[in-house]
Amino acid sequence: MNFFKTYKKQIFILLAVLLVLCSFITAGLKQQTGLVGSAVGFVVTPLQKLSSTVTGYVGGQIASLSEERDLEAENEELKAQVALLEAENKRLSLYEEENKRLSDLLDMAQKYPAYESIGALVIAKDPGNWFDTFLIDAGRNKGVLPDMVVMESEGIIGRITETGPNYSQVQSILDSRSSVSAMSLRTGDLGVVRGDYTLMNQGLCRMEYIDAESEIMTGDEIVTSGLSDVYPPGLTIGYVQEVVTDANGLTKYAIIAPAVDFKHISSVLVLAEELGESQSDLDTSAQQTEESQPSAAALDGEGGTAP
């Protein structure tokens, strides 16, 4: 059986040649006349039919084998084309994703026009589902400094804790070492939003030191209060999910659902400084420099000569 499979093509060709030769021989014999010719014709005619049938079968098998080889070659070529198209599709998808990330950065910058901002992309994060600490691709080379605020379009992410030549480390508000002075936008009630190790596993944080008489309630928007050297006022932190009175009855705390999706962060905006403050500082510095220079007229009035 294995021999037939191995030499199938050669066997079919040999049979075809033998049958063709047989056809020529029988055709010559069939031309004989008389009783002998009739007898030969009686024997030869079925043999010719059998020869034609077998020859047709063998020819069909050979044609089928040739067609099969052509189909296999065409199939391999199509597979190669599909692989190229898939690679091109992946490349275009990466370009599309990169373009979307850059577009998101531009949208975020337009949302905070009062600040000098630096766009950056996330390049690494700590293990786990949540972005409690992670790295971005902007460092001292782009003017990023420690304690600069890191934002997304929905609200604050955290702050810069460490900078390198071309990278920076971000500590998010979910991190247990983080604390942000905060208040309810609706009532003005103050508190401090802290990261909580247990709540972090749910993507939540905790607002502490809320006065027991406060009217803060579920659904309130929590923003930065401005009582901090790091976070400017009015930046969205998140929304109250639950309010609980402490056991001492003197204070409350609230569970906060951050505005930012801390499972999916790909691009961020680093707020460098307020543009108005920057320009004001430059104007003040120029004025002080000008006032510190003695005028030529004053020197002349004192009997001196201007240099």
In short:
By secondary structure, this protein is of the alpha+beta class. The chain has helices at residues 2-6, 8-30, 34-111, 197-200, 275-292, 296-301, and strands spanning 115-125, 133-136, 149-152, 155-163, 168-172, 179-184, 190-194, 205-211, 221-224, 236-245, 251-258, 267-274.
Order of helices and strands: HHHEEEEEEEHEEEEEHH
State the domain count: 2
- Taking all Cα atoms into account, the compactness measure Rg is 43 Å
CATH class of the largest domain: Mainly Beta
Strand content range? 25-35%
Largest sheet: 6 strands, antiparallel, barrel
Provide the CATH topology of the largest domain.
Answer: Thrombin, subunit H
Number of continuous helical runs:
6
Query: Looking at the structure, what is the overall shape?
Result: elongated
CATH superfamily of the largest domain: Rod shape-determining protein MreC, domain 2
